[in-house]
Amino acid sequence: MTARIALLLLCSVAVAACGSDESGDPGGAPFASRAGALREIGQLAWLRIDERVLFGARNGDARFIIALGAPAPSDCESGTVSVQEGVKARSFEYYAKTGEFRYLRSQFSDCTPPGNAGESVIRGILERGEEAEHDPTNVSDSFDQYAVYGDEALGSGYAQTLVLKDAGGTVTAETTEELLGSVEWRDADIGRVAGSVLTRRLVRNVPDAHSLEWRQGRADEPLYVDAGLGQSLSVEGPYAWNSSSCSADSGFRRITAGIARDDDGYPSGGQLTIVAGSESFTATFDAGGNAVVSFSNGNTVTLDAGEVRAALDQPACW
For residues 188 and 131, is the Cβ–Cβ distance under 8 A? Predict the structure, then answer.
């Protein structure tokens, strides 16, 4: 576990991987530049819908503490959890679905899950729901689910803090992840489609201080992901970030992507387009993961697969 946390987004010292300007600010490189393209592609490693990392490093990844696809703990060694469950009507916000859903709403107060050796503490509200009339024996029957993190009315998220200690009891890593918003998704025999409006805050206090706020989707426009069979992936919608290692809030970008991924989750074909204000670029990937990036100003750069993977493994703005 310690090795995983140690991998948490330490920016590479190489300018090409970090996307830094001459001052060392990863956010300072011009959008329409090689370093800017690597920064923008690398930041997509923060995008997520469920338990799967969408871009890169999906095996043993350390960017995420909260397992979106995992059920909430039902008991605590210390602290408390109150659970409410039942069936209720729900109309989805991000795509057309109205029906009865079995739901489980858990409210945590400084909860340390059983068998966790005091390393993890959970706070806030998590509600998970699934279609009540789903027939799991019918492979052609779609299956709708949702997750609501935190209480948007109060501005309070669902958070988990992970603390690691060495044999002497000294804290070697302390990181908190907080989610606020919701995700709705449909599983079918042709893959999964999902919509989300979700804010994610990640704060690391030990061994050094870093923070990130990642926003995917917004109230007037969710971010949509269509994960087909195999490794095909389509993404469309707005996103933004604000990090302690970059000079300013990114402002909302917009992504439109239709790509293939290899077994490790890295691009292996297709295109993605990122629009930031009046600027944009399109990255076209070959089967080996190399990319040709065409900017809206007419310039073009080529990125090799190693550069793309490094950018996704260590996002610059964190």
Answer: no
- pLDDT band of 150, cuts 50, 70, 90: very high
Q: What are the contacts of 129-137 at 24+ separation with CB within 8 A? A: 129/90, 129/101, 129/102, 129/103, 129/104, 130/101, 130/102, 130/103, 131/99, 131/100, 131/101, 131/102, 132/87, 132/99, 132/100, 132/101, 132/102, 133/99, 133/100
| Residue 18 backbone class (left: φ over 0; alpha: ψ -120 to 50; beta: rest) | alpha
Using one digit for the tens of pLDDT, what is the confidence trace for 40-86?
999 998 888 765 567 765 444 456 778 766 778 889 999 999 999 99
- Amino acid at residue number 167: A
Separation between Cα atoms, residue 28 and residue 273, nearest integer Å = 20
Count the Cβ atoms, other than its own, within 10 Å of residue 297: 11
Q: Note the pLDDT of residue 19.
A: 40
Q: Give the position of tokens 């890593």.
A: 173
Query: How many Cβ atoms are within 10 Å of 228's Cβ, its own excluded?
Result: 14
Cα torsion 52, 106, 193, 177: sign: negative
Two structure tokens written together for 243 = 């990090």
**CA-based nearest residue to 195, from 178, 214, 212, 220:** 220
User: What are the counts of helices (DSSP H) followed by strands (DSSP E) for the chain?
Assistant: 4, 15
- Write out pLDDT tens, residues 16-39: 333 444 445 556 789 999 999 999
Residues in the chain, total:
318
Q: What is the pTM of this model?
A: 0.85
- Residue 169 burial (CB count, 10 A): 6
- In terms of phi and psi (left: phi > 0; alpha: psi -120 to 50; beta: otherwise), the region of 22 is alpha
Please give the residue that has the higher pLDDT: either 259 or 60. Answer: 259
Q: For position 1, what pLDDT does the model report?
A: 36
Phi, psi (degrees; rounded to nearest 5) at 65: -95, -40
Q: What is the CA radius of gyration of the chain?
A: 20
Report cis status (omega within 30 of 0) of the bond before 73.
no
